[in-house]
Design a protein that fits this description.
Helix content of chain B: under 10%
Oligomer: heterodimer
Strand content of chain B: over 45%
Number of helices of chain A: 0
Number of strands of chain B: 10
Largest sheet of chain B: 6 strands, mixed
Structural class of chain A: mainly beta
Number of helices of chain B: 0
Largest sheet of chain A: 7 strands, mixed
Distance between the termini of chain A: 35 Å
Largest interface: A-B, 21 and 18 residues
Strand content of chain A: over 45%
Strand order of the largest sheet of chain B: 2-10-9-4-5-6
């Protein structure tokens, strides 16, 4: 099973700041990596597919990069609604796996 | 509008069974694979199972193999998860997710406890 490690576990930032979230895979997943945002009591929302493709309706301040084992989600300038938990997911091999999540909280 | 509505969750004793359902609308159900994903209270997301559009490809995570069965009824536009021999560690919100992962249901809570 591919293990996805996300870091940091918590990111404390202020609105307007840049957020950089990392996801490292225990073996290569190519570009088959997605990012999700989840707020309390809500289902996850797809942000990025295939490492760098923004999903429909996702603001341009969200961007994804990376391939192989190291991936990054960047939020260029945090809006109040961006404070949430972000999870990465690999879809390269079964079983599909998720990272443990990074919580972006208001500083 | 794409809608996925789960039902069937509840409180069950260890060793018991539950059948989750997911009613799909707003898209061509037969055109998409489907997944079940769960989230234990306060924990991260965990993929559970996958089924292809015509049910000829099915996958499970190891911890549920032999206990859970995924199925679908394309005529009824419904996805199912039959869960047997339930354990405390199966306690979670279970989400129905359309492949491409853009669309998730609201989730149904399964609690396994005596």
């Amino acid at each position: 099973e591919i293990v996805l490690t996300q870091y940091p576990a918590t990111l404390s930032l202020s609105p307007g700041q840049r957020a950089t979230l990392s996801c490292r895979a225990s073996e290569s997943v190519g570009s088959s990596l997605a990012w999700f945002q989840q707020k309390p009591g809500q289902a996850p929302r797809l942000l990025i597919s295939d490492a760098s493709n923004r999903a429909t309706g996702i603001p341009a301040r969200f961007s994804g990069s990376g391939s192989g084992t190291d991936f990054t989600l960047t939020i260029s300038s945090l809006e109040p609604e961006d404070f949430a938990v972000y999870s990465c997911q690999q879809r390269n091999v079964w079983p599909l796996t998720f990272g443990g999540g990074t919580k972006v909280e208001i500083k | 509008e794409v809608r996925l509505v789960e039902s069937g969750g509840g409180l069950v004793q260890p060793g018991g069974s539950l059948r989750l359902s997911c009613a799909a609308s707003g898209f061509t159900f037969t055109g998409y694979s489907m997944n079940w994903v769960r989230q234990a209270p306060g924990k991260g997301l965990e993929w559970v199972s996958y089924i292809s559009p015509d049910s000829d490809a099915i996958q499970y995570r190891d911890s549920v193999k032999g206990r859970f069965t995924i199925s679908r009824d394309n005529a009824q536009r419904s996805l199912y998860l039959q869960m047997n021999s339930l354990r405390a560690e199966d306690t979670a919100v279970y989400y129905c997710v359309r492949d491409t992962w853009h669309y998730w249901g609201q989730g149904t809570l399964v609690t396994v406890s005596s």
